[in-house]
C-alpha cells in the first residue's frame, strides 16, 4: 500500500469511529438535524475519498446509505430504530471493506453482505418515501433530464495529492450521457513541462437526471480545481411544457441547498492543528529520551566527583532542560481516555439489546489523559468489566421493577487523575456481588478454608484470582466474575491495581488504578544490603527511622506506631533472601497501596531518582515484586520494586504459613 | 557475514566461537555472538532462577546474566584474568533477547562442518545432552557445540 492509501485508511477509520458515535447519538435523539447532517457528511466523505483512492466497492456500498440520509435530511424519511440498526451494521461492514484494502483494477464484484445491506436500506427508505406523497413529487422531478456544461481544470497540486481525473470523469459518465472533450492548450513546451502537474483541461457536456447536486458531489474532493457547472437549455422534449417552473425551482433549490451543505462540508472537520505521528516514532523518541536521562544521571555523578563550579552549573542547566524535554515528550504520548470510552457505548448498546436488558452507559471524565500504551491495553479489560456488569450485575427489567429500581439500569464509566495515577471506575446499579456464592466457590477452589473468617470485602477481591471463574458454573451460581482474572493480569502488566466494591442489591463498582505513564517515573533510590533498588515515588508516603529496639526484636511482631497509627512493615532483606548487613541505622519507607499503609525496611535511603523503566527479560518477568530495571548514574543496574505486588506476596506467604 | 554463515551452516559448514568453561571447550554459532567484553558488575535479582541470577549493563542496555555453569552442573565461576563476558543475541520464547554469560576464556573462531559433528553418547558426559548439538574434534581436542535454544532456555525442558 502506498502512503496515500495508508493515510486514507487511517482517516477512514477515524471517520468510522466518529460515525459510530454519531449514530448512537442519533438513536438517542432521532430528530436532531445536526446529527443527521453529521452522518450524511461522514458517509459522503467516505464515498468521495474512497473512490479517489481506489476503494470503488466502498464507494458503491456507501452510496445508497448516503442517499438514505439525504432523504432524512430533506425530511422525506425518518430515523427509525431499524435504520439505526442497519446503519450500525453497515458501519461495521465498511470497516471490513477498508481492512481488505483497495479493490483490484476493474473489479466489479459486490460481496453478498454488501448487497444484502444495500437491499435492506433501499427497502426501508422506499417504504417510507412511497408513503410520503411530496417525496413522490420530488422524485418525479429528479427523474427529468437536464443538460450541464462542465469545465474542469485540475489544480497544479492535485496530481501530486493523488487525484485521478480519469476516475472523476468516469464518475460523471456514470451519471448520464456525457460528451467529454479534452483540451491540451495549456500544455507548456517540453523544456518547461513539469511532469507532476496536470496541464489538460476538460469540457463535459452531461445529460443527466441526477441533478446539479450529484455533479457537485463528484468534484467535492477536487475543491482546488477550477470547476464550472452551467445548466444548459434541455435539448430533449422530456420535460413537459406545462412543467418548466417546478423543474427550475428544483434546480434553484438544489443549488441553494448545495451551497449550504458546501459550507457545512468545509466546516465539518474541525480545523485541528494536530499532526498525525506513527506510534513507533513516538516510541523511538521515548527510547532516546530514556538514554538521555540515564546519561544525565551519569553526568551528574561525574560533576559531583569533579566538584567544578562551572561544570556543576552546566550540569544543572542540562538537567533542567532534560526534565522539561521529558515532560514535553510524555505529554505528546498522552491521549484523552474518551478514545476508549467511545467504544463502549456500542458494546453496552449491543450487549443490552442482545440480553434483553435496558442499560444506559454514562461516561464521565473522558478528557482525562493517559499514556497511549496504557490506553491501547485498556480496551480488553474494560470490555470484560462492562460485559460482566450487564450480563451478571444488571437484573432483568421485571426483576428491577419489583426491586423498586428504574427499569433502565445505569452504568457509569468514570475517569479521573489522582497524583501520579489515573483512576477508572465502572459502576452499575445492579444486584451486586453474591458474597455467599463467592465463598462457596473459593472454598471449593481451596482459595480459603471452609471455616476461615473472611470479610465480604475480602471475598469480593477473590473474583480476580486466577482460575476462580474460568468455569461456566460460576456465572450461573454467583452470577459474577467471568474473566476477571484476565482483567487483573492486564492491569498488573500495566503496573496498576484493580479492586471491587459491592453492596447487595445496590450495585458493584470496579476501580482500576493505573500509572500515568509506563516509561519514566520518579523513583526513590534505596539500598538493601549491597543492592540498589528503586521504589516508585507515587507509592511512597514518607520515610522514618527504624527504632533500634525494633531491629533487635525477635518476637516476630513487625508493627510501627507512626503518629498514633499502627503501620505493619516488612524487611526487604528477609523477603529477598539477602544476608542481613549489620546496620544500626535502618530506615522504613512507608508506602500506601490501595489505601493501606505498609513499611519496607531498607538499609539506606539514597534519594530521589528519575527512573527510566526497562522491562525485564523472559528470565525475570515472572518474579513477583519486581516492576522492571533501570540504569543508575554510576552505570550499575537497579531493580524497580512493585510495592503492590510485594504486599500481595507477603499476604499470600502469611496465608500459607497460617 | 551472518547471512553467509547462516545459509552455509544449514548445509555444510558453520562458523562457531569457542570458549572454555571449567576446562572444557564449548562453541556457539557466531551469528548469535554480538560482542565479547570485559567482566562487568552483576546486580543480583532476588528470588530469580539460578540459571539467570542477575542483570548487567551492556553499553546502556540491561541484559540478563546467564550462569551456564549452573545449568551444566559445574562449579561456580572464579574470575580470572582471561575471563570475558560473551554477549549473545537469541530468540527466546519468540522474543529477541540479548543475554550475557561469563566464559573462563575465549579461544577462537572455528569452522565446524556437519561431517565433523558427532552426536553425544548419553553416558559420555555429565551434563544433560539436550543442551548439546554435537561434539567435534579440533586439533586433537573435543569441542562441544551448544544448542543455544535449549542451553539458554528460560525454563529447562527437563
From TrEMBL, chain A:
<keyword id="KW-0067">ATP-binding</keyword>
<feature type="modified residue" description="Phosphohistidine">
    <location>
        <position position="44"/>
    </location>
</feature>
<keyword id="KW-0597">Phosphoprotein</keyword>
<keyword id="KW-0418">Kinase</keyword>
<dbReference type="InterPro" id="IPR036097">
    <property type="entry name" value="HisK_dim/P_sf"/>
</dbReference>
<feature type="domain" description="HPt">
    <location>
        <begin position="1"/>
        <end position="101"/>
    </location>
</feature>
<dbReference type="InterPro" id="IPR005467">
    <property type="entry name" value="His_kinase_dom"/>
</dbReference>
<dbReference type="GO" id="GO:0006935">
    <property type="term" value="P:chemotaxis"/>
</dbReference>
<dbReference type="InterPro" id="IPR037006">
    <property type="entry name" value="CheA-like_homodim_sf"/>
</dbReference>
<dbReference type="Pfam" id="PF01584">
    <property type="entry name" value="CheW"/>
</dbReference>
<dbReference type="Pfam" id="PF02518">
    <property type="entry name" value="HATPase_c"/>
</dbReference>
<feature type="domain" description="Histidine kinase">
    <location>
        <begin position="277"/>
        <end position="518"/>
    </location>
</feature>
<dbReference type="InterPro" id="IPR051315">
    <property type="entry name" value="Bact_Chemotaxis_CheA"/>
</dbReference>
<keyword id="KW-0145">Chemotaxis</keyword>
<dbReference type="InterPro" id="IPR004105">
    <property type="entry name" value="CheA-like_dim"/>
</dbReference>
<dbReference type="InterPro" id="IPR003594">
    <property type="entry name" value="HATPase_dom"/>
</dbReference>
<keyword id="KW-0902">Two-component regulatory system</keyword>
<keyword id="KW-0808">Transferase</keyword>
<dbReference type="GO" id="GO:0005524">
    <property type="term" value="F:ATP binding"/>
</dbReference>
<dbReference type="InterPro" id="IPR036641">
    <property type="entry name" value="HPT_dom_sf"/>
</dbReference>
<dbReference type="InterPro" id="IPR004358">
    <property type="entry name" value="Sig_transdc_His_kin-like_C"/>
</dbReference>
<dbReference type="Pfam" id="PF02895">
    <property type="entry name" value="H-kinase_dim"/>
</dbReference>
TrEMBL record, chain B:
<dbReference type="InterPro" id="IPR039315">
    <property type="entry name" value="CheW"/>
</dbReference>
<dbReference type="GO" id="GO:0006935">
    <property type="term" value="P:chemotaxis"/>
</dbReference>
<protein>
    <submittedName>
        <fullName>Coupling protein CheW</fullName>
    </submittedName>
</protein>
<dbReference type="InterPro" id="IPR036061">
    <property type="entry name" value="CheW-like_dom_sf"/>
</dbReference>
<dbReference type="Pfam" id="PF01584">
    <property type="entry name" value="CheW"/>
</dbReference>
<dbReference type="InterPro" id="IPR002545">
    <property type="entry name" value="CheW-lke_dom"/>
</dbReference>
<feature type="domain" description="CheW-like">
    <location>
        <begin position="13"/>
        <end position="157"/>
    </location>
</feature>
<dbReference type="GO" id="GO:0007165">
    <property type="term" value="P:signal transduction"/>
</dbReference>
<dbReference type="GO" id="GO:0005829">
    <property type="term" value="C:cytosol"/>
</dbReference>
Amino acid at each position: 500500500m502506498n502512503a496515500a492509501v495508508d493515510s486514507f485508511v487511517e482517516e477512514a477509520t477515524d471517520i468510522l469511529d466518529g460515525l459510530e458515535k454519531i449514530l448512537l447519538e442519533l438513536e438517542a435523539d432521532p430528530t436532531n438535524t445536526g446529527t443527521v447532517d453529521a452522518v450524511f457528511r461522514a458517509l459522503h466523505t467516505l464515498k468521495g475519498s474512497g473512490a479517489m483512492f481506489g476503494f470503488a466497492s466502498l464507494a458503491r456500498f456507501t452510496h445508497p446509505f448516503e442517499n438514505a440520509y439525504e432523504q432524512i435530511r430533506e425530511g422525506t424519511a425518518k430515523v427509525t430504530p431499524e435504520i439505526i440498526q442497519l446503519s450500525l451494521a453497515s458501519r461495521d461492514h465498511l470497516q471490513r471493506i477498508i481492512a481488505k484494502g483497495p479493490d483490484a483494477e476493474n473489479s466489479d464484484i459486490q460481496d453478498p453482505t454488501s448487497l444484502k445491506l444495500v437491499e435492506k436500506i433501499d427497502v426501508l427508505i422506499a417504504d417510507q418515501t412511497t408513503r410520503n406523497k411530496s417525496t413522490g413529487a420530488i422524485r418525479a422531478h429528479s427523474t427529468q433530464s437536464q443538460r450541464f456544461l462542465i469545465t474542469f481544470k485540475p489544480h497544479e497540486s492535485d496530481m501530486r495529492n493523488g487525484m485521478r481525473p480519469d476516475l472523476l470523469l468516469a464518475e460523471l459518465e456514470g451519471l448520464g450521457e456525457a460528451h467529454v472533450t479534452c483540451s491540451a492548450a495549456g500544455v507548456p513546451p517540453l523544456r518547461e513541462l513539469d511532469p507532476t502537474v496536470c496541464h489538460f483541461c476538460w469540457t463535459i457536456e452531461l445529460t443527466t437526471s441526477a441533478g446539479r447536486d450529484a455533479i457537485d458531489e463528484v468534484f467535492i474532493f477536487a475543491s482546488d480545481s477550477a470547476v464550472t457547472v452551467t445548466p444548459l437549455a434541455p435539448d430533449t422534449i422530456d420535460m413537459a411544457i406545462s412543467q418548466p417552473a417546478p423543474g427550475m425551482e428544483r434546480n434553484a433549490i438544489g443549488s441553494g441547498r448545495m451551497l449550504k451543505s458546501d459550507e457545512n462540508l468545509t466546516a465539518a472537520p474541525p480545523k485541528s492543528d494536530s499532526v498525525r505521528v506513527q506510534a513507533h516514532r513516538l516510541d523511538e523518541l521515548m527510547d532516546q529520551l530514556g538514554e538521555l536521562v540515564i546519561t544525565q544521571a551519569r553526568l551528574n555523578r561525574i560533576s559531583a566527583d569533579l566538584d567544578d563550579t562551572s561544570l556543576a552549573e552546566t550540569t544543572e542547566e542540562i538537567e533542567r532542560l532534560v526534565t522539561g524535554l521529558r515532560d514535553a515528550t510524555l505529554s505528546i504520548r498522552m491521549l484523552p481516555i474518551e478514545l476508549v470510552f467511545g467504544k463502549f457505548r456500542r458494546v453496552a448498546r449491543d450487549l443490552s439489546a442482545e440480553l434483553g436488558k435496558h442499560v444506559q452507559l454514562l461516561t464521565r471524565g473522558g478528557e482525562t489523559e493517559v499514556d497511549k500504551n496504557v490506553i491501547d491495553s485498556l480496551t480488553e479489560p474494560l470490555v470484560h468489566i462492562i460485559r460482566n456488569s450487564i450480563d451478571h450485575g444488571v437484573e432483568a427489567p421485571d426483576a428491577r421493577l419489583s426491586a423498586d429500581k428504574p427499569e433502565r439500569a445505569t452504568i457509569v464509566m468514570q475517569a479521573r487523575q489522582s497524583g501520579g495515577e489515573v483512576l477508572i471506575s465502572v459502576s452499575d446499579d445492579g444486584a451486586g456481588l453474591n458474597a455467599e456464592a463467592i465463598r462457596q466457590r473459593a472454598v471449593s477452589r481451596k482459595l480459603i478454608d471452609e471455616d476461615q473468617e473472611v470479610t465480604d470485602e475480602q471475598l469480593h477481591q477473590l473474583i480476580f484470582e486466577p482460575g476462580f471463574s474460568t468455569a461456566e458454573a460460576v456465572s450461573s451460581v454467583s452470577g459474577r466474575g467471568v474473566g476477571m482474572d484476565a482483567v487483573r493480569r492486564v492491569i498488573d502488566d500495566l503496573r496498576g491495581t484493580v479492586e471491587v466494591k459491592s453492596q447487595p442489591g445496590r450495585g458493584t463498582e470496579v476501580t482500576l488504578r493505573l500509572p500515568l505513564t509506563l516509561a519514566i517515573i520518579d523513583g526513590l533510590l534505596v539500598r538493601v544490603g549491597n543492592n540498589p533498588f528503586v521504589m516508585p515515588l507515587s507509592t511512597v508516603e514518607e520515610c522514618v527511622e527504624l527504632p533500634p529496639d525494633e531491629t533487635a526484636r525477635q518476637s516476630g511482631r513487625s508493627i510501627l506506631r507512626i503518629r498514633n497509627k499502627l503501620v505493619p512493615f516488612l524487611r526487604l532483606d528477609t523477603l529477598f533472601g539477602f544476608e542481613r548487613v549489620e546496620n544500626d541505622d535502618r530506615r522504613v519507607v512507608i508506602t500506601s497501596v490501595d489505601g493501606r499503609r505498609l513499611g519496607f525496611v531498607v538499609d539506606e535511603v539514597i534519594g530521589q531518582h528519575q527512573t527510566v523503566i526497562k522491562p525485564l527479560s523472559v528470565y525475570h518477568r515472572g518474579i513477583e515484586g519486581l516492576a522492571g530495571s533501570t540504569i543508575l548514574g554510576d552505570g550499575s543496574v537497579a531493580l524497580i520494586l512493585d510495592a503492590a505486588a510485594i504486599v500481595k506476596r507477603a499476604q499470600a506467604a502469611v496465608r500459607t504459613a497460617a | 557475514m551472518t547471512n553467509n554463515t547462516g545459509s552455509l551452516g544449514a548445509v555444510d559448514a558453520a562458523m562457531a566461537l569457542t570458549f572454555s568453561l571449567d576446562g572444557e571447550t564449548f562453541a556457539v554459532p557466531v551469528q548469535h555472538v554480538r560482542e565479547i567484553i570485559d567482566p562487568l558488575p552483576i546486580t543480583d535479582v532476588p528470588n530469580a532462577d539460578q540459571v539467570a541470577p542477575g542483570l548487567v549493563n551492556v553499553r546502556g542496555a540491561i541484559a540478563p546474566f546467564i550462569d551456564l555453569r549452573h545449568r551444566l552442573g559445574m562449579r561456580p565461576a572464579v574470575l580470572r584474568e582471561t575471563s570475558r563476558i560473551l554477549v549473545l543475541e537469541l530468540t527466546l520464547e519468540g522474543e529477541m533477547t540479548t543475554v550475557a554469560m561469563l566464559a573462563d576464556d575465549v579461544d577462537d573462531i572455528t569452522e565446524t562442518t556437519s561431517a565433523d559433528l558427532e552426536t553425544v553418547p548419553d553416558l559420555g558426559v555429565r551434563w544433560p545432552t539436550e543442551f548439546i548439538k554435537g561434539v567435534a574434534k579440533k586439533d586433537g581436542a573435543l569441542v562441544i557445540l551448544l544448542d543455544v535454544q535449549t542451553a539458554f532456555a528460560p525454563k529447562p525442558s527437563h
